[in-house]
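Lab meeting, item 3. Inverse folding demo.
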C-alpha cells in the first residue's frame, strides 16, 4: 500500500514521526519543530518506529525514515508498516545518496519520496508544507473509505443510511462496555466486542483503524497488561471515525 501525493489547503499542525539513530539529526529536527508547525515524536530505529505505529497508528500524518539504522533498517521498517500494519501514511526516506537503484528499492518497499542528508531546513520546510496541505485536503473524511461509501450509497442509499446510523449510535457504548469487561478481567468478552468493529465499521474505515482493531483484539485475547493507553488511542480513533461518518451522512441527506 502506498499513499499518493496531493496539494494545497490551509495550514495546520502536522504530527510527524522521525526515525533516526543519530542523536544529532534528532536534535536538529526537534529544534525546528516549533517553526515548522509540527508535533514531533522520535524513534531510535526501525523496530521502535514499528512499535509506535502499531500502538498509535492513527496519531501520525508523516514519517521521516532514515535508511541505515541498527536493529531494523528503514527499508525493513517500511515493508513492515505497509505489509503487516497495513498503514498508508506517507514515509519519506532520509538518505545521503539517492541513486536510481536506491530510489527503486525505496519505492518497492513503499516509501513516498526522499530527503537528502544532511537535512536542510528549507527543504524540510517545503516537504512539511506539502504533506500538511495533503493532510488538510483529505482531513474532513480522512478516516473513511469514501469510494466504498459512495458505491454502497449509489446501490442502496436508504439501507446504507440505516446501517451507518445504527453503527454510529451503538459503537461508542459497546466500546465502553468492552473497556469495562477488560478491567473486570473478562478478556474474552471484551475481545468479542472489539472484534465486532471489523464488521460494523471496518468496511467503511481507513486501514489504520482496521489494523488498530486487530491489534487491540489480539492484545486483549493474549492477556497483555497495562492496555489503558491502547484503549485510549483506540477511543480517540473511534470518536473521530464516528464524527466523520456523521458528517458524511449529513452531506448525503436529501
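The presenter then showed the designed sequence:
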Amino acid at each position: 500500500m502506498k499513499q499518493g501525493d496531493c496539494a494545497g489547503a490551509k495550514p495546520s499542525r502536522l504530527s510527524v514521526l522521525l526515525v533516526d539513530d543519530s542523536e544529532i539529526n534528532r536534535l536538529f529536527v526537534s529544534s525546528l519543530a516549533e517553526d515548522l508547525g509540527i508535533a514531533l515524536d522520535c524513534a531510535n530505529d526501525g523496530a521502535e518506529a514499528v512499535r509506535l505505529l502499531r500502538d498509535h497508528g492513527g496519531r501520525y500524518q508523516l514519517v521521516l525514515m532514515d535508511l541505515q539504522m541498527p536493529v531494523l533498517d528503514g527499508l525493513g521498517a517500511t515493508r513492515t508498516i505497509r505489509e503487516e500494519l497495513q498503514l498508508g501514511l506517507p514515509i519519506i526516506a532520509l538518505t545521503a545518496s539517492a541513486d536510481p537503484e536506491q530510489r527503486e528499492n525505496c519505492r518497492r518497499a513503499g516509501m513516498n519520496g526522499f530527503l537528502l542528508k544532511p537535512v536542510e531546513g528549507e527543504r524540510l520546510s517545503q516537504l512539511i508544507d506539502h504533506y500538511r496541505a495533503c493532510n488538510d485536503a483529505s482531513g474532513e473524511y480522512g478516516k473513511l473509505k469514501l469510494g466504498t461509501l459512495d458505491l454502497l450509497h449509489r446501490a442502496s442509499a436508504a439501507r446504507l443510511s440505516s446501517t451507518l446510523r445504527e453503527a454510529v449510535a451503538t459503537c461508542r457504548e459497546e466500546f465502553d462496555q468492552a473497556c469495562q469487561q477488560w478491567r473486570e478481567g473478562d478478556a474474552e468478552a471484551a475481545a468479542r466486542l472489539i472484534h465486532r468493529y471489523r464488521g460494523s465499521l471496518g468496511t467503511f474505515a481507513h486501514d489504520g483503524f482496521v489494523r488498530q482493531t486487530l491489534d487491540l483484539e489480539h492484545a486483549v485475547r493474549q492477556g497483555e497488561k497495562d492496555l489503558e493507553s491502547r484503549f485510549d488511542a483506540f477511543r480517540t480513533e473511534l470518536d473521530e471515525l464516528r464524527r466523520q461518518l456523521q458528517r458524511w451522512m449529513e452531506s448525503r441527506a436529501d
